Amino acid sequence: MRYENFSLTFSSAGEGRFLTRVLDSPAGQASGDFILPFANSSLRRGSEAAARRNISKEEGKVEISQSSRPEEIGSLLFNALFTGDIAQLFFQSLGYVTAKGDRRLRLIIRVNPNEEGAASITSLPWELLYYNGTHKFLAFDLSISIVRYLEVQQPITSTPLPSRIQLLLITFNPRETPTLELKGERRRIQSAVSGSLHPFALTTVQQATIDELCRATRESPFHVIHFSGHGEIDSESGEPFLALEDEKGSTARLSARMLYSILSPLSTLRLVVLNSCLDQELTLGSTVSLASYLSMQGIPAVIAHQSAINDIEAIAFSQSFYEALARGKCLDEALSEGRLAIRAQFNDYHSWTWATPVLFSRLPSNELFEGDD
Question: Is the pLDDT of residue 224 over 50?
């Protein structure tokens, strides 16, 4: 399946306003204004499901939480982004790929992390974009994918398809954290890649310590590293970390900087998946912060969750995501299938946990390898 890019970039104009430019689309270029529609830009699990909408003290803006209706949040975001010439270009581009039949539209949210206001744009729940005209989330439209792109001064080199795709699965569950079904997730990932069109070699490190992670990354030229366990947030600094284990089975904190220092020698690395469960309220300091940091340091593609996700959801996501990769799907298509698997776990139409997985990618065409199509 061929994708056409609809690439958007944002420049701060101060006080929650941004100049938005369409750098690339099937219908040309345009610019417009984007005003942050929310008083906050993070996803939080609400304590009361009945509290569907909260208006903040900042007049005209909505305080979003995971108890908010996803359609409402997505519609507000859509209407703030697609205005004037940008809206016209978007619908023209969507019409173009629809008419072609064999193409899709890739909505790319480009952010320069060094610019003012970058964190506000990065933390918005773009995966919830909802068009009232079709009563559909863009993330569930088979003609559209949503990708985050951080502009960094590091080139992405193409990598030929290897004889075997090396996948490293790192699992951890410190004794003071809620028990996770890590064996079940490992079995499902192993089953998912066993019938791959291209062979996978799966290596697993269970009850992983930081030292064991270091040793494992030195043993093989891994292309994909999948982390499965708990993520937490430091109560004092607000910094996120992965809760690996120490020699006694207690929590050993792995920060974003330490994680990158371990992964950076791996020149073969193409994708990091942070499939971490979080059981607490999330703000910008979430696994998305870990993902954006890794992306800024040059990791070609990173998948993480922008809000809390439970064990069942994490396992469902992993299985469907790797099944899609095994069938030769690109990253955005595989991510879409993972989202659908999360949504299938619940009958609540207003749940928005399916929107938690996000993709940061600078890979050409979002293919892991050259010729991987």
Answer: yes
Task: Calculate the CA 127 to chain-centre distance.
Answer: 9
Q: What are 92-95's contacts with CB under 8 Å, separation 24+?
A: 92/26, 92/27, 93/4, 93/6, 93/25, 93/26, 93/27, 94/143, 94/144
116 and 193 within one domain: no
Measuring CA to CA, which residue among 207, 342, 354, 363 is closest to residue 272? 363
- Token reading at 224: 């994909």
pLDDT digits (tens, 9 = 90+) for 182-204: 999 999 999 999 988 889 999 99
Query: How many domains, in total, are found in the chain?
Result: 2
Confidence of residue 62 (pLDDT cuts 50, 70, 90): low
Tell me the average pLDDT across 6-13: 97
Whether residue 227 is found in the same domain as residue 201: yes
Locate tokens 């043993």: which residue? 219
Domain containing 28: what range?
2-150
pLDDT digits (tens, 9 = 90+) for 85-144: 999 999 999 999 999 988 999 999 999 998 999 988 988 999 999 999 999 999 988 889
